[in-house]
Structure formats: structure tokens, C-alpha cells
Amino acid sequence: MVFLPDYCPELNPVEGLWKWLKGDVFNIVFFSNFYHIRIPVTAFMKRINQQPMEVIERLLTWV
Q1: Per residue in 10-27, pLDDT tens?
Q2: What's the Rg (C-alpha) of the chain?
Q3: What's the pTM?
Q4: Which are the contacts of 20, defined by CB distance < 8 A and separation ≥ 6?
Q5: How many angstroms separate the CA atoms of 26 and 3, rounded?
Q6: Per-residue CA distances from 61 to 34, 40, 54, 57, 58 (Å)
Q7: Does residue 37 or residue 9 have the better pLDDT?
């Protein structure tokens, strides 16, 4: 068994993806409802899916 702390975001690379998403999509923007959020989040996901190596490099160095 390997002991992991209760909360340790640096051991979970997806936390870096959420941080990147929040910085690109939600930074200084107010969305009045959920449906307005979907469009920029979808655009973000399409953009990062086109450059998988950039995503891997960024997530491995996000800490």
C-alpha cells in the first residue's frame, strides 16, 4: 500500500487541467446561466484535443 494524503492536487494531474480551464474560460467572466458556459468550455476542450503533446507537457509541469 502507498499512503496518499487526503488532499494532494499535485499528485493528480487532472487538477492542472481544471486550473487551466478556469484560467482560460472563467477568468474575469460572469456567466448568467449554465448554458452560456458550455460554449467556451467546448471550444477549450476542442482546442486542447488538437494539441495532445502540449497538454501532456503542461500537465506534467503544472505544479
Answers
A1: 777 888 888 899 998 888
A2: 14
A3: 0.73
A4: 48, 58, 62
A5: 34
A6: 31, 24, 11, 6, 5
A7: 37
